[in-house]
Write a structure and sequence with these properties.
Layout lengths: L3 E2 L10 E2 L9 H6 L5 H8 L1 H9 L10 E6 L2 E6 L2 E2 L1 H11 L6 E6 L5 E5 H17 L7 E5 L4 H12 L3 E4 L6 H11 L3 E5 L2 E3 L2 E3 L1 H9 L7 E5 L13 E3 H7 L9 E2 L3 E7 L7 E6 L1 H14 L7 E4 L6 H13 L3 E5 L10 H9 L3 E4 L1 H10 L2 H4 L8 E5 L5 H11 L6 E4 L33 E4 L9 E7 L9 E2 L3 H9 L10 E5 L5 E6 L3 E4 L2 E4 H8 L5 E11 L3 E10 L7 H14 L8 E4 L13 H8 L14 H12 L1
Parallel strand pairs: 6-19, 8-9, 8-10, 10-13, 13-14, 18-19, 18-20, 20-21, 21-22, 31-32
Antiparallel strand pairs: 1-2, 3-4, 5-15, 6-7, 11-12, 16-17, 17-25, 23-24, 24-26, 26-27, 28-29, 30-31
Helix pairs in contact: 2-3, 4-5, 4-11, 5-6, 7-8, 10-11, 13-15, 19-20
The structure holds adenosine-5'-monophosphate-propyl ester.
Adenosine-5'-monophosphate-propyl ester binds next to helix 11, strand 22, strand 27 and strand 29.
Length: 651
């Protein structure tokens, strides 16, 4: 086992292992790899030219005049260029020999299968683009999508892109209120949903939840419903339409609407340090270039590969490495609707075997669950088709990395640990398989063309040790803003240092320049790979009549990485008994979604605050993780803390 050593970083992030193991690429993998060492040298000479070369591999209606126009924090990539992303993702494959190649192999949770060739996907997207037009959707209009993981989700996003409409996918596990807030923030005109979906054998009543949300969404004029099952629903005449009915009437071809390279492609909401989720805006030319290039080199895709990214399209990973990146590369990919443990804990491995998956991309939280379930589950299946493995979403602990390497990869498959964010649009730190030697727990080096450093509070570079992760050069997929909130965009990402992007993560750099991402330094909890804002959960809780005040902290969790521990001050002399605990947990799950359900609820007669009234979450975290209390000198009333501690220990 590697030695563990505590290190403190500038971000106040706790400990880090000292990991000595290193895995060199095999000569066999290197010989066939898309990535070459020279990519780094070329990109370093002129990073704008490097991205321009990548962009040249896509279909453009009109070539750009200028690769990059940069005045921090505003970047314009491929200035003057015009394109429609669906020409790169679909049309070109119809004419280049991939017409009958499987684009999407879909498996439903109850066991149904569907395969769509590139031509079939192209036809569906064209038809649905005509449906959208028929419903009055035009370039620049916003379309909200609240669907299960079914092919129509991919069809809907690409159909929006076909006509220049801006899509915003809301994860199907989010509550009606979360859906409502996102729709209203965007002023979406149309909602695409389904009668329901499947999750662990249960039906997720999407249309019912959408109806609840729509009570309060004045901008939505029409709702298109995909019939996933035979689920009961209320149909509102005039507003609601069946997807399949509209598709029957639609023309088979829809000419692509060409847009400026900087035209918004989608808005995706993510949690930030203050309550309201942020609508992250991504544009067309740069985003597509970034996802195309990273898919090609990080996942090393070849014509015969079967790629499977297990993420939901409700998250950015599904946007970049399911909808756009693989299709821009003409890849065959798998899409799965349900849970990894339904009906048994080998569902993923069964899918890998059944479809011959060769490149597999998942999250550390899933890997830890697989470890817990035991290696006999993957052991039941032939996983020899796998040749490359990837992870994303949170730091991967070296034990999980080794398990993935040995049990799933049979020590043959390189692992790409990829660091990026909703805001970055595409992978930023990653090994290049076949080129980069890997170290368990390190995402290794910035992708070619990307420049990242570890900085301290003053913006001074840390050459060996801990600090804040910083992106010191513009990149094509970078967010162009927060929908409707310029001030917040500048404050959140661009105010820590001058002209440098701050992702909100702490990290360490070692003597070989390898980067080790440690986690968030802001008030965001990364649970099961999803960012949850502590403020969002707190503001949901105080809406409950029993709660006066709440403070949320992240605590280590065996499977989820981090889980939510909530300190609550209650109204009157209410007692935090089992019943109230359960009610509050359900309340949060209902308000925000099951992913935000608190693991622990702890009674706090009062919350520890500074003299200026700021809640000291750091100290609450010490209590919830059983640590010695840190510095309490800035507290208005240190005694409060000891009372909470006593309650916690009593529990
Ligand atoms: O803290 C980092 C963590 O996830 C955050 C981004 O979350 P989100 O926008 O939801 O996007 C997740 C999928 C791209 C980051 O700020 N994170 C993501 N990947 C890694 C990671 N932390 C460590 N290692 C990673 N590979």
């Amino acid at each position: 086992m590697p030695a563990r050593k505590g290190t403190t970083s500038a971000g106040g992030i706790d400990t880090l292992m000292t990991e000595k193991r290193k895995f060199k690429p095999s000569t066999k993998f290197t010989a066939q790899a898309n990535g070459k060492k020279s990519l780094y040298t070329t990109a370093n000479k002129d990073y704008v030219k490097f991205w321009e070369d990548m962009a040249s591999e896509l279909v453009w209606k009109k070539k750009w005049r200028e690769g990059l126009k940069w005045k921090a924090p505003d970047a314009k990539w491929f200035v003057g260029g015009k394109l429609n992303v669906t020409e790169s993702c679909l049309d070109r494959h119809i004419h280049n020999g991939r017409k009958n190649k499987a684009a999407l192999i879909w498996e439903g949770e109850p066991g149904s299968h569907r395969t769509l060739t590139y031509f079939e996907l192209y036809r569906q997207v064209n038809k649905f683009a005509n449906v959208l037009k028929m419903l009055g959707i035009k370039k620049g209009d916003r379309v909200a999508i609240y669907l299960p993981m079914i092919p129509e989700l991919m069809v809907s996003t690409l159909a929006c892109a076909r006509i220049g409409a801006i899509h915003s996918v809301v994860f199907g596990g989010f509550s009606p209120e979360s859906l409502r807030d996102r729709i209203n923030d965007l002023g979406a005109k149309l909602l695409i949903t389904a009668d329901g979906g499947y999750r662990r054998g249960q039906i997720v009543p999407l249309k019912h939840d959408a109806d609840v949300a729509l009570h309060d969404c004045p901008t939505v004029e029409d709702v298109v419903i995909v019939k996933r099952g035979d689920f009961l629903l209320r149909f509102k005449e005039g507003r609601d339409h069946w997807f399949h009915r509209l598709m029957q009437e639609a023309d088979a071809y829809c000419p692509p609407v060409y847009v400026d390279a900087e035209h918004p492609l989608f808005v995706l909401y993510t949690s930030g340090t203050t309550g309201k989720p942020k609508g992250i805006v991504h544009t067309t030319g740069g985003y597509l270039t970034g996802v195309y290039a990273t898919t090609k080199y990080v996942f090393d895709l070849k014509e015969d590969d079967v790629f499977w990214c297990t993420a939901d399209v409700g998250w950015v990973t599904g946007h970049s490495y399911l909808v756009y990146g693989p299709t821009a590369n003409g890849a065959t990919q798998v899409m799965y609707e349900g849970a990894p443990d339904w009906p048994d804990q080998d569902r993923f491995w069964e899918i890998v075997e059944d479809y011959g998956v060769s490149v597999f991309y998942t999250a550390p939280t899933a890997i830890r669950a697989f470890m817990k379930w035991g290696k006999h589950w993957p052991g039941r299946h032939d996983l020899s088709s796998l040749r490359l493995l990837g992870t994303v979403g949170e730091p991967i602990n070296p034990e999980a990395w080794m398990w993935y390497h040995e049990v799933i990869g049979n020590k043959r498959c390189p692992i790409v640990d990829t660091w990026w964010q909703t805001e970055t649009g595409h992978i930023m730190i990653t090994p290049l398989p076949g080129v980069t030697a890997t170290k368990p727990g390190s995402a290794t080096l910035p992708f070619p063309g990307i420049e990242m450093k570890i900085l301290d509070d003053d913006g001074k570079e840390v050459k060996n040790g801990g600090g804040y992760l910083a992106i010191t050069r513009p990149w094509p997929g970078m967010l162009r803003g927060i929908w409707g909130d310029r001030k917040r965009f500048v404050e959140t990402y661009w105010s820590k240092w001058d002209g440098i992007y701050f992702p909100g993560d702490g990290a360490k750099v070692d003597s070989e320049k390898y980067l080790w991402v440690l986690g968030r330094v802001d008030d965001v909890i990364n649970t099961a790979g999803h960012r949850i804002s502590t403020m969002e959960v707190e503001s949901a809780l105080v809406e409950h009549e029993a709660v006066v005040e709440a403070a949320v902290v992240g605590v280590p969790h065996e499977l989820k990485g981090e889980a939510l521990a909530v300190f609550v001050t209650l109204a009157g002399d209410l007692e935090l008994d089992q019943k109230l605990r359960a009610r509050l947990k359900d309340f949060v799950a209902r308000k925000i979604g099951a992913i935000a359900r608190p693991e622990q609820l702890i009674f706090a007669p009062d919350l520890p605050k500074t003299r200026s009234g700021k809640i000291m979450r750091r100290l609450l975290k010490d209590i919830a993780t059983g640590k010695v209390l840190g510095d309490t000198t800035t507290l208005a009333d240190p005694d409060v803390l000891y009372q909470i501690k006593a309650h916690y220990e009593e529990d």
